[in-house]
Amino acid sequence: MRRLVMTAIAMMSAHCALATNLVFTTESYPPYSYRSLHGEVLGMSVEQVREIIRSSGADIRYTIEVLPWARALALAETQSDHCVFLTARTPEREARFHWVTPLAVTRNFLVRRKDSPIRGKTLEDVRNYIIGTQRDDYTELLLRQKGFRHLDLSASYDFTLGKLLSGRIDLMPMSEAVISGLRDEGKPVEPVVLLAEQTLGIACNKAVPAPLVARLQAALDRMIANGAMQAIARSYGVTQSP
Q1: What are the C-alpha distances in Å from 17 to residues 12, 14, 217?
Q2: What is the pTM assigned to this prediction?
Q3: Does one domain contain both 110 and 74?
Q4: Residues 47 and 93 in one domain
Q5: Same domain membership, residue 187 and residue 75
Q6: pLDDT tens per residue, range 174-223
């Protein structure tokens, strides 16, 4: 009897050891991720991440939190049980995380308020304007690399958008899906010039077990192949590849 009890305890311990607790962080960036009026974390990429975890078959207990982007990214880099999304997979970030990609491939434009007189066909045409973006967002580094010096940094996308709509900044980076969503809401925004095309995904702390990350990647690959990722995107009015 004692042997049976010890065996049961050992099996339960092994199961617990296999279970993983993770915190997924993201920012407020509709339609990809946002909080509802009731505090629920919703959005296209949120739904995709939940489905990737479910279909991976991995024993993961997780939460999803909406934070200012710089904090969301910093936690994923410094905390062993954290992942962050939607994260641009850039050369500068490649070695800093384990990756599960692509959740989305998106084009990012510099956007003006619709009644603004700003015009331009190239990045050079708009280099001297005040550009707003989120602190530690990949667009901050990208803008600096492309020679933009007049940057206005905010803690979140919502703050940056508020500055654009109130005329406190001239332009801000924004993806096609976000531009479309804002127009549907009647927000007066308009793209001026293409900034970049970028692959976005989940970035996990390097301490997250590689076999677990591989299971999440395999689940994402299956969802791309069977059309599930695209179906979720379409349900939010987003057309994308994958």
Answers
A1: 9, 5, 21
A2: 0.81
A3: no
A4: yes
A5: no
A6: 999 899 999 999 999 999 999 999 999 999 999 999 999 999 999 999 99
